[in-house]
């Protein structure tokens, strides 16, 4: 721990104002790029400095100026930002539209405008930003347009309520913006139009007055989107396919995405009959056409929107079976592996949106699972890996019977896949199947029968990434480890692995093994690996033992900790040649004063006395870092409420008070003060 530091002082310069008020002085390169002396630079108003930098011939100066746009806006205030800064930026874009060298600056501008709203510029005063963003949406550079669309979609929902607009605003401005972008001669604006139309449609749903006028505007938006989906330029159709899901959700009046609804398991919100009719007769044809497009780059984006279409149709099985399921069939059999890959990534969401639930729809459920099993056996590794990631959610959606019939038989082949990425994803998703927050459909019997052989193989995989996916989450099945002897033996062997992340994961798992196999098993087989990990050269590995102390205490009890753990730790402390070892021991003792999840903290008086004794000993160490950790540990002991009041008054408080007055290290004094305050 460093000694008390002193703040550096700067002499010879006046205080820096405006965008340079962060405490940094202008670089020499930046100062030379501006046509003014240093004194004028330091006193220059924020807007003038921004204009000077942005007008400089130096690319570094212009980039630096644009990076600090939000800081300049804060210095200028809301009114000047809207009246001076935004018009200036709009003029700058107009001059730079044909200049390739300014793409980086325009990209920064598109991102910085999002930072202005709603912090500096309230949403209802953000309309002057829209013309600027419209210009950015027409720029040739793709990343600039994408960032501009992202910012546009962030600002539009914030325009209301609270605005005081002239008649028809902001609706009139948004409508004309959509018209100009969608009807532009060049494809770049049309690509952006497909990205902003869903947000505009949702804005009309939320804020436009009910009536024929609003219905007409929404109809116009649907026509514009349809025209974009039929554009001759593949890039425009690709953008329409990319944003089709959001547009379907807007037309259906959904406020959450299909992916969020399916993942969270929330019930399907009601879809108004009129909205359902619009989705069925106007949007579904667009979906079907894009899914059959001649360009695979269009098809792959369209098929992944099937989940949104299903939710837009209220997940009615009779409708989705005729509209969505044929597209899913076609996507699974598509000749382009990229289409199959994109569908694989969203397959669980698509399945959930079909609404095939209950015995009545078992035939269609079975068909969907057969399609999924086909993707799991795809000839392309990328497709298999993407499909494997959906196994846990598919098991939850289909239940144990469909899982055993269609997925479980394929797991051994996937576990032996030649491609590491597939094995890694499978290891991860198998542990997700054991996570109650993701999947509750599989019983312990199925996990033992189907997963146990796979876990044994994964723990012996040649790649550490595969091993780590199992080790880091094996605590989810800790109650079953008593029936997994081979798995436990593999874990013990991996305590000596060369990869420190593997040793770290083993260290975090050992307390759960003690819980599963019993205290005597820990004494006979796990204590030695535990102490070796405790002395590991890597700090994160040692921290695994520290984090496991509360669990070990709750499993084994205070008496066992005193008999088996504390003597070894005390010996390590006494024989330590490095202060890092003493810090690790002190942190381990302090960790005993923390709760293990929801389990009540129960430390015996004798154990607490030993903890306090070692902490007090640490307060007298010659190394400030050790004293700091000891003071912090006493603070945890105080907060735990397990320490006897007599010990607090006679030992802990006097020792901390003495150190507060004698300690030279400011950080140590601070920790002592925190520990004293914790007793109040």
Number of helices: 39
Structural class: mainly alpha
Estimate what percentage of residues fall within beta strands.
Answer: under 5%
Give helix % range. 55-70%
**Largest sheet: number of strands, sense, barrel closure:** none
Q: If you had to describe this structure to a student in words, what would you say it looks like?
A:
With 680 residues, the chain is mainly alpha-helical. The protein contains 39 helices and no strands. It has helices at 28-33, 38-43, 46-54, 59-67, 69-76, 78-96, 103-116, 129-136, 142-155, 171-182, 187-207, 212-229, 234-242, 244-252, 258-264, 273-291, 296-303, 306-312, 317-323, 325-332, 337-345, 347-354, 362-376, 381-388, 391-407, 411-415, 420-432, 444-459, 464-471, 485-494, 500-517, 519-534, 539-556, 558-575, 579-591, 605-618, 624-640, 645-662, 666-678. Helix 33 packs antiparallel against helix 34 and helix 36 (605-618) packs antiparallel against helix 37. The radius of gyration is 32 Å and the shape is globular. The two termini are 27 Å apart. The model is unreliable at 1-26 (pLDDT under 50).
